[in-house]
Amino acid sequence: MSATVNAAVGHRWLVVPDDPALEPDRELVGGKAWSLWRMRSLGLRVPPAFVVTTEACAAYFAGGGLPAGLVEELEAGIRLLEAELGRTFGGGDRPLLVSVRSGAAVSMPGMMDTILDLGCTDEVERALAAETGDPAFAAEVHRRFTGFYGRLVLGCTEELEDLPDTAAVRAALLADTGARIPADPWEQLREAVAAVFASSRSRRATAYRRHYGIRDDLGTAVTVQAMVFGNLDDDSGTGVLFTRNPLTGTKEPYGEYLERGQGEDVVSGRVTPKPLTHLASRAPAVHAELLRAAECLDTEGRDAQDIEFTVQRGELYLLQSRPAKRTARAAVRIAVALVDEGAIDPAEAVRRVTAEQVRTLLRPELAAGAADSAELLASGAAASPGVATGLAVATPEEAQRTPGSVLVRRSTSPDDVHGMIAAAAVVTEQGGATSHAAVVSRALDTPCVVGCGAGTVEALVGREVTVDATGGRVYAGALPTSAVTEAADDDLRRLCEWADALAPVRVVADGAEAVEPVFDAGAVPPDELGEALPAIPPGTRTVRGALFTTTDGVRAAVDAGVEVIVAENRLPVLLAAVAHGGGAR
């Protein structure tokens, strides 16, 4: 919905994205709320929600607190959810609980906070137990909420996940923070919204934006959504589905399902879910409905989608759909496949693949037979392919201090992102292919192996290891690798042909004829040249050298009017030239 629609319903800071005919402004409502509108407009089942806008976030930081009028609008939004569902926030025979979820305009998976089961109190726990006939479920919801709120709003640093009940969590919170969770659900809501706003400037979110060149002033919207419970009974669960394989790009459903779980259980990596085939065997009708929704979203979005879903008592609810984070290999395969499917044209395919992704794809791979006599130290699920050798370290801070190291963790969380960015590879004891470690590593194109089992940290840390994340194995020592070439890959060859027609310069392979005069920057590695690029002499028509395989070097050549760049691998240079612009030759 637009700001005009906001005014029409009397809200300055709040949008209710439920009208299929009125597309919300993504900059205003964030990607998560926009995806809820899109799914609802396609006739898919989505729990009702409203969203506090990014403008409210900006006002929060400008004024040092929730902006005037937002408290009243939050109440109005909750009343809309109550009316639609016939439930009551904070009490009643049929209590309403909500999730409070971050949602930036640019997707930043796991970088900001989400609080589930908000609105839970002692009274609500009793009502929930009576409604469901399951006091244990109600107690578990209360315990989970207490932990979420204590960690994300009160700032508790103690481990709370394994504590047995709400009383134990409350005691730990009080001991660590000196604070108690408000008994008033409206106060819970206000404080949770403020905490989600604040998380947009957390260390992890800032590091992620810096790494990807995302503007630092985007802030976040806050989506407040009615809870559905994947942990309700044996006919309930939660999962993540990718419409195409995010490792290889193959057009096939890829994902995981966790019976009697909530979404946080899957992404945290603390629990290893089962393959989607488990859902198919347990609830074939639900699985078929999920695949139909996935096909619809993939087609409508003209891209691979990452879909979060919950099943409550045998009924499917979609919580989010967004373009899937993917490996470099998958990015190339998906872009070419979408051209073959008629969804996009070759020019769009070229724009969807970056030079850095192709450079990553052309990194060396484990040499044939190299692992035959190597000592296998650990094995797990291949979450993000690639090969890396380095010293295994146990903390993100050590990874930052040790270039080329391998970060080994029990499981990763958003607080580990700065170390994941610095590491050459990531290995975890817990988690599956849709865990935090897996999703973030794919986004970073960092080799990653997850679910290697208890004791992996102790077995690896302090040793030089080679991570073969394509095969899901970790070996002792440094193993030999072999080079990869773009000529041997049909997808890369086709992208190269399309990029060649769009690039403002010609790119030729080493040994090909070049036009005079030629400027040769030599074979000095680009990272040893410093920040200043050497001046390209006026009138130069051809350049060569390691410098001109980098994005900055390509831009400098294009800006200088160079006609030909000589490079060992043509495609990364062509893609960098197309991205820089200047028009086709």
From TrEMBL:
Pfam families the UniProt entry points to: PEP-utilizers, PPDK_N
MF GO annotations: ATP binding; kinase activity; pyruvate, phosphate dikinase activity
SUPFAM superfamilies: Glutathione synthetase ATP-binding domain-like, Phosphohistidine domain
Occurrences of domain Pyruvate phosphate dikinase AMP/ATP-binding (ranges): 70-285
InterPro entries: ATP_grasp_subdomain_1 (IPR013815), PEP-util_enz_mobile_dom (IPR008279), PEP_util_AS (IPR018274), Phosphohistidine_dom_sf (IPR036637), PPDK_AMP/ATP-bd (IPR002192), Pyruvate_phosphate_dikinase (IPR010121)
Highest rank taxon of the organism: Bacteria
Ranges of residues in domain PEP-utilising enzyme mobile: 403-472
Protein name: Pyruvate, phosphate dikinase
Organism whose genome encodes this protein: Pseudonocardia halophobica
